[in-house]
C-alpha cells in the first residue's frame, strides 16, 4: 500500500493521513459490514471490485485527489512570477529566501550569449550610487539607484520582446547585493503587480546577482568598464554618500 501512494511529487503531509487510514483498517474478514463501501473505493481493492481512486466522490478524509491536485497546482516556488514557465537560469542560495539569486559565473554565461536563443533582452540594474557606478560597473548595466529611477526606466514604457517565444529578464545588484539590490528587486515586482491584472507581469523573471559587484569584479574584470572597483564608503565620496542616502529615504 505504501508504495502505491509514494510519489516524489506528492507532499508527505498529504500522504501520511492516507497511510494511517489504511493501516488502521482491520484485516479482510474481520471488517464489519459498514466498512465495505470504503473498501470498494480504495486503491487496494481486489481486482474483482469496481475500485475507484481514493477520494473520488468521498467528501471525508485528508487525501482526496482534487485536494492533492490543487496542492501541486498551487506550488509555484520554481515558476516565474506569472507562473507561465520555469526559471531559465540556474539559481543559488542567497541571503533573502524570497528572491532568486544567480552566481557571477551564471551572469557571465548570460553576458557571453550562451542563452541568446532564449533571452531577447537582459536588463542589468546596478542599484549602487552614481559615483560607485562611474568607478567601475558590469558592461551594459544601467544605473538606477533610486526607486523612481527604476519605476520610470522599467515600468513607464515596459520592455516587450519582439519574439514572444523569448524572454526579458532583469538582474539586480549593488555592492554586495545585500540590501539595495534586493530592495529594488522587491520594489519593481510590487509596482509591476500593481499595474497588472494578477498574475500577469511585465517582468515575471527577476534575479539578484549573489555577492554583487564586490564578488563579480575580482573574477571577471574583463566584463567591467572601467576595470575598477569603487566602494560605497570611499574616502573621497563621503559627501556624495550622505546626499544619496538622504534621497533614498
TrEMBL record:
Keyword Transport assigned: no
Signal peptide: none
Domain of life: Eukaryota
Catalytic activity annotation: O-phospho-L-tyrosyl-[protein] + H2O = L-tyrosyl-[protein] + phosphate
Entry keywords, A to Z: Cell cycle, Cell division, Cytoplasm, Cytoskeleton, Hydrolase, Mitosis, Phosphoprotein, Protein phosphatase
Main subcellular location: cytoplasm
Gene Ontology CC: centrosome; cytoplasm; nucleus; spindle pole
One of the Pfam families matching this protein, by short name: M-inducer_phosp
Protein location: Cytoplasm, Cytoskeleton, Microtubule organizing center, Centrosome; Cytoplasm, Cytoskeleton, Spindle pole
Gene Ontology biological-process entries: cell division; G2/M transition of mitotic cell cycle; positive regulation of G2/M transition of mitotic cell cycle; positive regulation of G2/MI transition of meiotic cell cycle
Biological function: Tyrosine protein phosphatase which functions as a dosage-dependent inducer of mitotic progression. Directly dephosphorylates CDK1 and stimulates its kinase activity. Required for G2/M phases of the cell cycle progression and abscission during cytokinesis in a ECT2-dependent manner. The three isoforms seem to have a different level of activity.
Record-given protein name: M-phase inducer phosphatase
